[in-house]
Amino acid sequence: MVNTLEKLGFKIAFGIPGMWSLPIYEALASSKIKHILVRHEQNAVFAADGYARSSGSIGLCFGSAGQGAINIASGIVTPFKDHSPVLSITSHVPTYEQGKGWIEDIDLRAIFSPITKFFAQINDPLKAYEVLCNAYLSCIEGCPGPSCIAIPGDIQKQESSINLNYIPIPRKIIPKEEEVKIVIKKILNAKFPLILAGRGCILSNSSDLLLRFIESTGIPVVTSMMGRGIIPEDYPLCLGPVGRRGFEKANKALSQCDLLLVLGCRLTNMTIGNIDLKCEIIQVDIEEKNFSPIANMKVKSDISSFLESLNINRKFMISIEKSYGEDTIEYAKAIASFSDAIFTIDIGQHTIWILNAIIAKKPRQIIFSGNMSSMGFSIPAAIGAKLANPNKRVISVVGDGGFQISSSELATIKENNIPIVICLFNNRSLGLIRQIQEIVYGRTFGVDYSDTPDYLKLAEAYGINTTRVSNPKELIEVINKAKEPILIEIPISKEEKIKITKPRILE
Length: 507
Description:
Radius of gyration: 24 Å
Strand content: 15-25%
Number of helices: 20
CATH architecture of the largest domain: 3-Layer(aba) Sandwich
CATH topology of the largest domain: Rossmann fold
Distance between the termini: 51 Å
CATH class of the largest domain: Alpha Beta
Number of domains: 3
Strand order of the largest sheet: 2-1-3-4-6-5
Structural class: alpha/beta
CATH superfamily of the largest domain: Thiamin diphosphate (ThDP)-binding fold, Pyr/PP domains
Helix content: 25-40%
Largest sheet: 6 strands, parallel
């Protein structure tokens, strides 16, 4: 199995060994794959996810049986919701112990099947290579996502072999020629066509193709939050993200266009929200399950293949206005000024501040748990992103709530000398939930940290450099000088708010 992982190109894995995964780890010890020992299996998934999102490769993580596998499951749902290719391999109790209710025995298939694209338990060692190749293909073929393989302890010690006659190569889905002709005709007949580019454009590496297409046609682009950076947001024809937290002018264009070409993007409450769409909608996606019932035309295709097939000889002259995110603070603007960085972002008020401050220049620059809102994601994701991109600056933006969930990974950062910058927004509370409680109930409960630890002393105990800043200028200076791992605490008042409408929680 480990030889096959090497053959498939895996170079780094994240995980924690357990009693029933010792044969796996014995094989890893003699391999070229670098193993990063994390402090929690959920964080192994988040690190592998950060590696995958920032590099375009598949992330790899390992877990043990029982609770270790369950912790992998709690993490794997995040790449599942965000279509990120992560391969997880867990051990399992021996086959002769399964189904008896003994220690660490649990139905892994029932747990993993709903939250992965592919799950298999290897019971026949002669089929191990085939199963592993299928899991690998599932991660990247069609709409990407996670796969999981469980290997019982007794099966791990049995003989197997590699089938040199079979190399897993993903199929590419191309659009039907007659559908492309119809799309071209509809675009040419439009007065105000608009492109909505989503994460599918990033996953299909369509940045250059999309940029060439809009340069030749003059058709403006808006993006989903997950699609940000597919073309530079300071480019004249890019209006930025749309939806509930989108930019004002981007949402205005979405409401005024007469033809919307949706590329690799689901039309959800977060993407189109309450925007009144009066246009014809053409949706292009690699997965039929992503199609929206409001789309007038649906084209199944890889986004890059679809863009390659478009040939439009018309230059649209559409008058557009640009705006940028307004709901932010000066500290977030200071962090966002490092426009060459990869940003891994946690969940909370700081998420809104930093997303509104960043002007994304490249794909894979903004990494956050968009569809699962996983607290504690940022720091382990930054570990994976930095290991995938050792020559790029990686900045983790996290609140004190998310930090307390993942702070144990400071040990992983120090142990492996991973030079990431952690910007900790500390308002001594779960600020976003606190604000929602105030709006809905007029009071707060269970959200304030009355006796928080000194986060700087905690980080220093792990051997991490620390500092506390008092103004945005100082923050910029500290980030500029950072050459080693560092935790920067940014004190924030509990009175600092984001703009928010009353949630529908009481309906």
